[in-house]
Amino acid sequence: MAIKQLTVFVENRQGALVEITDLFASYGVDMRALSIADTQDFGILRVIVNDTAEALRILHSKGYLVQATDVIAVKISDAPGKLSAALHALNVAGINVEYLYAFLARTQRHAYVVLRVADNTAASSVLEEAGFHMVSEDDIKKL
Hints:
34% of the residues lie in helices and 38% in strands. By secondary structure, it is an alpha+beta fold. It has two domains: 3-69, VC0802-like; 70-142, VC0802-like (2-Layer Sandwich). Strand 2 and strand 3 form a beta hairpin.
């Protein structure tokens, strides 16, 4: 079960990130998860939002280089070893995790993790078989 992640190339300069967050705020787009990695000249912002189509429209209209990518998100009990258990299940199934980052959520019993893998369907099946709940686009809108 894949969800959409936006990848935005952001100039590495003061104020560049706040311009994007201000855009989202002014159009009512709510960020659910985000990660940013930087190089000397630019950053790569990965973000999950409540309204992917609107965020894409806004970013394109402002000239940002943005791409939508399918990723998966998994709900994990907030206890020691639970993330390791999910990663172990994927490893045993031969599924490589390219990157992951945490999810912003309003719960104290669970953590939410976004994972980028080559085969979302296979990874989702492995995690579900291991007892984990996959996060859907509808779940994201409710968080």
